[in-house]
Amino acid sequence: MTSVNVQTITPLVATELLSTAAYEHERRLRAEWVKYLAEEMRRGSFKQDTVIETVKRGDNGKMVLVDGYHRLNAVIQSGLPCRFVMLASEVKDANEIA
Predict the structure, then answer these.
(1) Which residues fall within 8 angstroms of residue 59, CB to CB, at 6 or more apart?
(2) How many CA atoms lie within 13 A of 80 on its CB side?
(3) 3-state SS record for the chain
(4) Can you give the pTM of this predicted structure?
(5) Distance CA 59, CA 28 (A)
(6) With b meaning 16 or more CB within 10 Å and e meaning fewer, what string describes 69-98?
(7) Which residue, 38, 49, 80, 88, is the most exposed by fewest CB within 10 angstroms?
(8) Distance (Å, rounded) from C-alpha 81 to C-alpha 83?
């Protein structure tokens, strides 16, 4: 099952998502890219409604962030809320995430 909704993500919500749904195999944070995205957000040039994707593991119920790591960090760095399309899917286990 997949659900889709539009949500305004504040820096607090971004922090919570990053701390509770971190993906253990996430690529290294690129600080320059986060800085660029945060500057775009501050200028009002960041494209609203990009997709943040999470999956819920059926084997343990854990929610995992699979797309949006840099954008959520940019929300925190910018200090501004940003609107995203939140896509949430369900998978059987970690193998389906990979």
Answers:
(1) 92, 93, 94
(2) 17
(3) CEEEEEEEECHHHHHHHHHHCCCCCCCCCCHHHHHHHHHHHHHCCCCCCEEEEEEEECCCCCEEEEECHHHHHHHHHHCCCEEEEEEEEEECCHHHHC
(4) 0.88
(5) 26
(6) bbbbbbbbbbebbbebebbeeebeebeeee
(7) 49
(8) 7
